[in-house]
């Protein structure tokens, strides 16, 4: 009995701890941004009247294009990625192709955005690998052609890079949600003569989408304000707003930081606008979909759609992994001039020279990632259990708070956060603060990936356990957690991957003194040295990849004799 | 711990007390500095984008550890301004000691900004370093005026730079050495030339280089911009750029990001001419196997912009004594000669050859120069950096004209 009481205290406190972790720093940071944007740059002693900064941002040359780029790429990324993922899941769940492509796409999730973007650039640039493959034999090019492929002004290369990565994220959360949706309904529809794709879209997708809705929103918010992918693949003259904010933040003219703050608030508005448009789109699609579903059309000839789904997902995985393979090759390359397909010589020199630093920075990333992800997981599980026990879901306000770190662009509130830590903990950075900062970004994703599978869990299992005389803690530990092991481990692995990929929080809160593999990789990328980018990008990719592999293997190993706990069971 | 809590409370309450400044180490008493430095960890904030430079700093770290018992930790930055922002934030939070940044590799606008905001250790510490006596302050005025801002002993000289162009002599027989010839070459070879987008430093430097060659009265560049006449004065610069733009790489719709991308574009065969601030860059790249052995350098006939880079210590640095010892070591003939070695880095020294003793001179006599490095005579006249206000004004106008699409 005491154990139960002690346990429930933990569960009761957890939501407050979680809120405090998110609310404290965020509130302070947002306040700081507000002050800065409206001219009260307490930080930097610059005087401006209240709306000056906004006026100056809006009169910057090319600002219209920057705003547009900071808006349209978000919904477009989500739309393309979600469409391909849905088509693929609809057409191929339970098949051998599904398992094969899934095995390819899992590693893609582990690839940090910057590394994926760089790999894509190395593939598709005019001096890149694909053109080298056919030059000069087919093309006649002895020198690379002057084609604007990467950094195109409209942002298509950037869109492509984002779609490749987000496909992996959305597919993974979709699969995590799948066991909770009743897939048998699609089978009935197929039995009734419906095409496989249409049957799944009508009968299963709505239930699945309800669960993965927030991850989709996170994709939109992320893609509107992403910086690293935009730097590698995005337009340059002018760049998307988020990149310009970074430039202004780094400007040695301190009054520009006020511009950065105002622009950050504008970016926040753009992100909200993008989400609003998506929300309206959701309603339209749902209404149209319902009408179509009721029309009785069966769309039994869906071969083209099936092929598109498979080609889209498989192609994305191959592009990202091909890019990473090229990074690996770059890390070993000697001279490698156009149109040589392969480097003229190979050398381990860069790996040898960087080995000590790789070890130091990679192990620090592992420590930070493990702590941040483990703490997040513990808090989220405790919150979810508390919601179940009290019968009260997370409040609307709590939900907004939880998702704010995903909706407010990082470069908007990190300078404020850094100041908050300085004031509260002194100027000497330490590892615990960096872990804490990572926690702010990892927590929402952990909740995001876990809440829906958790809430969709059939609690009658727990009722049965209780009926058999087990207490709530026992039911949690022996029934719910084991059944949900796969989404739990996925959430952990995702949290780890997100922590490893954090650049700005590590740099700013750590004062640069606690470099991880990621801060090193980005710093080195600024020099454009492909060998170094290859070495660090590859190591950076490897860390989350290992953790993801473990998260995938563990449930299969543990539950190899429990058919109903395996994904796609029954198909 | 208690004091920190107190500071936090006080700052949160808006009091922001100026803490009593601890006694700074005095480089005039060098032995005391050496003693204080032993055991300290110096966080050296320096751009981390070049393998060879990182390796050089690593060598310095190993050496100061063995000789002075100092741990030198290279904090690799992608932007120097990141470190400037960090120090600013520390100052804003009311701290005046225990800061995260001990030593910064810096020059130009970042230095001017830190100086103006009182973020640097003063007392002319740099001029009191033992090895400062060897610095060629008479022969190289850029060492005492950093982009025209007086250095005032707030930063210690580390290296010098001069804008240099390089190309593959097996592709171009005679490189264009005047702006007219360059424009004609660009028109004759569409898509084979570009520069970095300002405000990247090499891009801004190219603009200033154009200014020296094109405006009617170059003397105006050494005084602050007259904004009323800016359009009229700079019209020839924009006319030159407008004229070449359609024939630039990617038709001028994209520019290079920085000095390293300019080098990579040349190595990948996307362009035929690149530029750098490091006169030894092309030779280093040949030695590295990145560029063909036929690579050569050239400068423009009216001289090219030269400047210097420095090391500074923030006012609130945690390891001031250690930072001074490191700065002094990096100024030693041994460290400077190694830095000037093209097989290591190839960055020209700040020391005066005549001020060195025989052993010091021998270190520099032993250096070999690669085939792509210009001798002092070929390198020609170094033009002074214009007043900092020109940098800002030219960058803003460039952004308006070419950075906004169309």
Class by helix and strand content of chain A?
mainly alpha
Order of strands across the widest beta sheet of chain A? Answer: 1-2
Strand content of chain A: under 5%
- The span between the termini of chain A is 43 Å
Name the structural class of chain B. alpha/beta
Largest sheet of chain A: 2 strands, antiparallel
Low-confidence stretches of chain B: 1-22
> Taking Cα atoms only, what radius of gyration of chain A do you get, to the nearest Å?
24 Å
Principal-axis shape of chain B:
globular
State the largest interface.
A-B, 63 and 75 residues
Count all strands of chain B and give the number: 11
Shape field of chain A:
globular
Subunit arrangement of the protein: heterodimer
Count of domains of chain A: 2
| Fraction of residues in β-strands of chain B | 5-15%
Q: What would CATH call the architecture of the largest domain in chain A? A: Orthogonal Bundle
Helix/strand order of chain A, N-terminal first: HEEHHHHHHHHHHHHHHHHHHHHHHH
What do the pLDDT scores of chain A average to?
84
**Mind telling me the C-alpha Rg of chain B?**
22 Å
Number of helices of chain A: 24
Task: Kindly describe this structure.
The complex is a heterodimer of chains A (571) and B (406). Chain A has 571 residues and is mostly helical. Chain A has two domains: 258 residues, MetI-like fold; 276 residues, MetI-like fold. Helix content of chain A is 74%, strand content 1%. Chain A is built from 24 helices and two strands. Chain A has a two-stranded antiparallel sheet with strand order 1-2. In chain A, a hairpin with a 4-residue loop joins strand 1 and strand 2. By secondary structure, chain B is an alpha/beta fold. In chain B, the strands form three sheets. In chain B, strands 1, 2, 3, 6, 10 and 11 form a six-stranded mixed sheet that branches. In chain B, strands 8-7-9 form a three-stranded antiparallel sheet. In chain B, strand 1, helix 3 and strand 2 form a beta-alpha-beta unit. The longest helix of chain B has 18 residues. The N terminus of chain B is likely disordered. Classes of the chains: A mainly alpha (571), B alpha/beta (406).
